[in-house]
Design a protein that fits this description.
79 residues; mainly alpha; 0% strand; single chain
Length: 79
């Protein structure tokens, strides 16, 4: 019958708090903000120290800074 409604709904039509566009946008905004805060507080200070470094005479601990930056960058990218 044309216009008759069926009792079945597609999976994407099920009402759930997690599939509403507003919830997805809120989650995306939170993750974006968390990524920016993580970058500014953890990675940028290491970048600043490295940028000021004299290549002929690197500061003590620059290898540890490089390893720490690599680890933190991987965490940022994977999350």
């Amino acid at each position: 019958m044309p216009g008759a409604r069926t009792p079945y709904r597609a999976a994407f039509e099920q009402s759930s708090n997690f599939t509403r566009p507003g919830m997805l946008i809120a989650c995306a905004a939170f993750l974006s903000a968390a990524t920016i805060i993580f970058t500014v507080t953890m990675l940028v200070p290491i970048n600043n120290r490295t940028a000021k470094m004299n290549a002929a005479r690197p500061y003590d601990g620059w290898l540890e800074d490089r390893a720490r930056w690599d680890m933190l960058h991987r965490i940022r990218v994977q999350c």
